[in-house]
Amino acid sequence: MNWINNYVRPKINSMLGRRDMPENLWIKDPETGEMVFHKDLESNQYVIPSSGHHMKISAKERLRYFFDDGQYETIENPKAVVDPLKFRDEKRYTDRLRDAKTKTGMEDAIVNATGTIDGLPIVATVQDFAFMGGSLGMAAGDAIIRGFETAVDKKRPLVLFAASGGARMQEGILSLMQLARTTVAVDRLKEAGLPYIVVLTNPTTGGVTASYAMLGDVHIAEPGALIGFAGPRVIEQTIREKLPEGFQRAEYLMDHGMVDMVVSRLELKATISGLLKILTHTPAADVPALADMSPPAPEPADNRAPA
User: Fold this and answer.
1) Rounded distance, CA 56 to CA 61, Å?
2) Do residues 181 and 72 share a domain?
3) 47: domain range?
4) Last residue of a domain, one of 32, 55, 78
5) Which terminus of the chain is less hemmed in, N or C, by CB atoms within 10 Å?
6) How far apart, in whole angstroms, are the C-alpha atoms of residue 280 and residue 5?
């Protein structure tokens, strides 16, 4: 069957001049079932215009939307030991890594980059869920630490976009060690007096929420993002009770004080820019959000005597 699909059918189509139509021209809204044209979705940063549902996006796409004019420089990640435990379940860990690299074009789940947002130089660290569920292994841990070290060396704020299913089981205890290592990196950034803002995207779970993802100066969540340690189904099975509506979603967590604000992806750049300018003591005149909220100056009193 593969021989027919991969060789015979393309050969017949080429002889007859047929062209296959892409299957992803229209994308279905998971919430409403509405079909959205892919170009419209791309121009709206993969936020469904009608429902506001936030689709998953790749690390490179997020960086392109986030930085000024889509311009940024990636930071080379350190080399890490591959498959230190020689792990195998249904397939070898090395095969899973190879498949993930082929699928995403990435070496691991983390991309670090430097650039500017509204003219302010920053370092951004992005976790890509498409690479083995954004799981945290040795390579990802080293890459996150490299991002923090770069921010300290360049004396720049760091913005981290978290998206993960948790620790990478194929690396066992070595994966769990990254929780402590990344926490130390966060402490070094704070000792340097540099701001650290975390954006929690869908989903952010497991060991990531037990380390660097919940240690920011400000925690921002995208609408509808699932955020927690264990998933809702695991909790329900453990306590044998039905969880409240919207439990562990961004809006529920903001209402209960776990995140500071829920911000649409379309407004993230402006919001983070304003926060960073406050945290870095940039003059208020350079912060448009503050200037817009300032009260109007009082009109001068007319002290002239009436005619």
Assistant:
1) 10
2) yes
3) 23-55
4) 55
5) C
6) 58
